[in-house]
Amino acid sequence: MEDLKRIKIKELMDAPVVGKKVNVKGWVRTFRSNRFIAINDGSTINNMQAVVDFEAMDEQLLKRVTTGACVSVTGELKESLGKGQTVEVIVESLEILGDADPEKYPLQPKKHSLEFLREIAHLRVRTNTFSAIYRVRHAMIFAVHNFFNQKGFYNVHTPIITGSDAEGAGEMFRVTTLDLTNPPKNEDGTINNKEDFFGKETNLTVSGQLEGETAAMGMSEIYTFGPTFRAENSNTSRHLAEFWMIEPEMAFYDINDNMDLAEEFVKYLVKYALENCKDDLEFLNQRALDEEKGKPQNERSSMSLLERLQFVADNEFERVTYTEAIDILKNSKPNKKKKFQYLIEEWGADLQSEHERFLVEKHFEKPVILYNYPKDIKAFYMRQNNDDKTVAAMDVLFPGIGEIIGGSQREERYDVLKARVDELGIPEKDLWWYLDLRKFGSAPHSGFGLGFERLILFVTGMGNIRDVIPFPRTPDNAEF
RNA sequence: UCCCCCUUAGCUCAGUUGGUUAGAGCGGCUGACUGUUAAUCAGUAGGUCCUUGGUUCGAGCCCAAGAGGGGGAGCCA
């Protein structure tokens, strides 16, 4: 084979130079008519068609061109005679880089269930659906940094191993180097954590917020984007034990500034996807439509994926206080007809997902930001409002997904925060540095957390969060 | 953690009231054809009916326990 530099399929398709000799490497999707090899290299959802003259080629070599095999083809780029593509490579030389035994290779040129593909997560990236999802995921990662960079926010790496167990966002994964079969003990029989690597009990982070706040109290506007770990025994299509979270934290922002930023942020991401992931979103749009064909009419969504994304980009989110939401729910049909599993009786009740869904999907039919929640159902660090009953918390709720963002204005008044910490019995030794922020140059500030995979669920139209991260970690599953 | 559903060929699924040799489509293989688009046509192979135990003359089908998967709830992002 001639020594020709490999070119990506995306490059060839974006700017095809007909008549040029090119080398393409990738994985065989199908080999039709003993003549047409559909090659995909992951640079785009589109395949490059390579045309071989089977009468002039080694039959044994062509036999090895099977679904899943990795090949390198070299030849002239020509306008395609067929209809499905504009250009194709007329193969002069063909090399098999890696065989794939068709009797054993699990992917076939046919539709596979998502459940089956989850079991072969190391190979599912070779399907249109998953490569499309991962390309969109990449675009969203890029867009997150782009958005904040343009706005003058600084990215901060908060620790993944944390020594404070006061974050209160959920069950934590223990990090230890102690010998679990024979751990060092104190005289009273408890484990002696002083012997552990850090000389104390440590865990994987459940949120970078508290550390993020320290950064905001010196750099004004920061954001984190990192892995987050929750050892909750959650078995749903919206929860992962290991996920990625974006947490901006802004000095001098009140709850309204916070909601403005959250809305602007999500809209930016959705618009970015619409503008930069056209091919992939069109494929995912069609995939979702095909999937819905199998569903009864009343379970189908009123808008297609692309329409939904455009709708979110174009329309104001509805902003409703908790108190207003309770009124709406109390007087709603399902509440009066006792259709809710949990009926709304009075102010103070925690909203269940059936209530959130009603507000978002039935009542307003658009994304909703709920804010000013009762303080008793929210975290200790949220700023108490003047009514003495509510805190300046806000949740952004999305159709089909529920809470995509949770945030608040933070309590910046030392006395108020200290009283709340004491009231809840949170040990001050874990939070002394957090309280210090309120002692020295405190400032009103706000922030929120966006669950990255939940955003990807929305943007790709997928239904299960295990399909929008390459290797999902969930209870009882850490395969791969 | 709780509730519900599922597990039959490589994949997606059918399998009647408990009855003789468990089926289809797709995929694989063999051959034909050759400008195809998940190519087409013909033929063909392929089964621990999730596991264990039980009921029965007889279990893919009934019962119990377990494993795996899915949907929903809670928790949350």
Helices and strands in order, then pairings?
Elements: H1 9-14, E1 21-32, E2 36-40, E3 48-51, H2 59-63, E4 70-79, E5 87-98, H3 114-119, H4 128-150, E6 154-155, E7 161-162, E8 174-175, E9 202-204, H5 209-219, E10 221-229, E11 242-251, H6 255-276, H7 278-293, H8 305-314, E12 318-321, H9 322-330, H10 333-336, H11 353-363, E13 368-374, E14 390-398, E15 402-410, H12 414-423, H13 428-439, E16 445-451, H14 452-460
Parallel strand pairs: 3-5, 6-10, 12-13
Antiparallel strand pairs: 1-2, 1-4, 2-3, 4-5, 7-9, 8-9, 10-11, 11-16, 13-14, 14-15, 15-16
The protein binds one RNA strand of 77 nucleotides through β1, α3, β11, β15 and β16.
Please describe the structure with a list of short key phrases separated by commas or semicolons:
480 residues; alpha+beta; OB fold (Dihydrolipoamide Acetyltransferase, E2P); BirA Bifunctional Protein, domain 2; 3 domains; eight-stranded mixed beta sheet; five-stranded mixed beta barrel; 16 strands; 22% strand; RNA-binding; ligase; nucleic acid binding
Explain what the structure shows:
The chain is globular and about 85 Å long. It has helices at residues 9-14, 59-63, 114-119, 128-150, 209-219, 255-276, 278-293, 305-314, 322-330, 333-336, 353-363, 414-423, 428-439, 452-460; strands at 21-32, 36-40, 48-51, 70-79, 87-98, 154-155, 161-162, 174-175, 202-204, 221-229, 242-251, 318-321, 368-374, 390-398, 402-410, 445-451. The strands form three sheets. An eight-stranded mixed beta sheet has the order 6-10-11-16-15-14-13-12. Strands 1-2-3-5-4 form a five-stranded mixed beta barrel. The chain is an alpha+beta fold and 480 residues long. The two termini are 36 Å apart. It is built from 14 helices and 16 strands. It folds into three domains: 9-107, Nucleic acid-binding proteins (OB fold (Dihydrolipoamide Acetyltransferase, E2P), Beta Barrel); 126-170 and 206-467, BirA Bifunctional Protein, domain 2, CATH 3.30.930.10; 172-205, no CATH class. It binds one RNA strand of 77 nucleotides through strand 1, helix 3, strand 11, strand 15 and strand 16.
